[in-house]
Amino acid sequence: MKRTKVKSLLSEKAKGQEICVKGWVRTRRGSKNVSFIALNDGSTINNIQIVAEGDHFDEEILKKITTGSAISIIGILVESKGGGQNVEVLAATIEILGEADGDEYPLQPKKHSLEFLREKAHLRFRTNTFSAVFRLRHALTFAVHKFFNDKGFSSIHSPIITGVDAEGAGEMFQITTLDLDKIGSEVDYTTDFFGSKTNLTVSGQLEAELAALALGQVYTFGPTFRAENSNTSRHLSEFWMIEPEVAFADLEENMDLAEEFLKYCIQYCITNCADDLRFLDNRLVEEEKNLKKEEKHEMGLLERLQFVIENNFVRLTYTEAIDILRNSKPNKKKKFNYIIKGFGDDLQSEHERYLVEKKFKKPVIITDYPKGIKAFYMKQNEDGETVRAMDILFPLIGEIVGGSQREENLEKLSQRMEEMEVEKEELWWYLETRKFGTCIHSGFGLGFERLIMFVTGMKNIRDVIPFPRTPQNAEF
Fold first, then answer.
1. Is residue 295 predicted with pLDDT exceeding 70?
2. Which site among 31, 34, 226, 464 is 20 to 30 Å from 266 CA-CA?
3. How far, in Å, CA of 54 to CA of 241, rounded?
4. What is the mean pLDDT of residues 253-273?
């Protein structure tokens, strides 16, 4: 008999039909006369109740139905006699597909800390929290592709192995097939696999620019790598980036696209993942009950999602933002931890959140940053001091998107690369696009895990990627 997913059964109105359902046991309770089994197959946050009457089944079979075991049920879908669910399954046959030793299975029906579950990453998918998070990760992945596809973008697979440090930060993972035990102080990279020094990519942007200057509008969506020795709740060594690039688009069009994209992705989750979002919203409410008043967030999860999609994003320049921050306090009692002194200072998370949550009470886009704190490829303004960059700021997390109009002028780009000591020989192909039919173009980058954190309310980036890679950790 064909298997039916739990999600479909819970919305099924045709009672009395024979069905087959398979899944993992969350709990089993009852007596010798009847057992009530909570079954989940991963298709929904909600379990379906299986009713197994004791006189229909061998006692040894029922003993093997422990938390974590995989079972197959054939039975009749009936109206539930108990509260909490509309339907349940009256079991006719039960098959044990995979036993789970009740004494050894680590995910017992009790609350586990997120730290503990990170050590059980091979099993944490089975918990309510992580099943909800990863269904939402899938929904966001689909929303990303659907948004760009419906707008006529072409997907570009940028290389994972590269010889270029697109961001100029130097924090890259080197790749080699050379025998490390035999390498001396002088390394001849011409004998290496690719004939030159190569690394894992930190961005697909430069390759996306090449494609956009022929296909018009493209996007990349793939893994990127940063060898940054940071163990904070916001950093990963391996993470996913979304990087659209549009020819003939200036910074204003770039901001319009980014705002529309973010609102679309969030609305897609609200429309298609209501049960998971409600669960995660309730989880945050329970989590914050034990926090001090000053530690609690002013907005719940669903409230902050509506906050983004219902408001037009405020747009202001970096200089305007600096002026506001220099004359502001985050609260009546104290100033910012990082004091803004003037032009050229990099904004910290506390500054970004103040602008969004206190000053404007809307998402904020800051533009025209000092060129000294931005990358070499950004379009230079006529003032010679700022570039056509933009960052989008969200509540709770601060920056979620960074982008810019790219410098299309060959002379200015070449000069800026010299100033920032970027190797022009390695990027000869990037410079050539400014020789042959160049035009204005813009794009932005969005750290996918940062977006998932915002949508799910998870506070640690390790909890929104299946198998996190961080310093000193490459398990699973």
1. no
2. 226
3. 53
4. 98
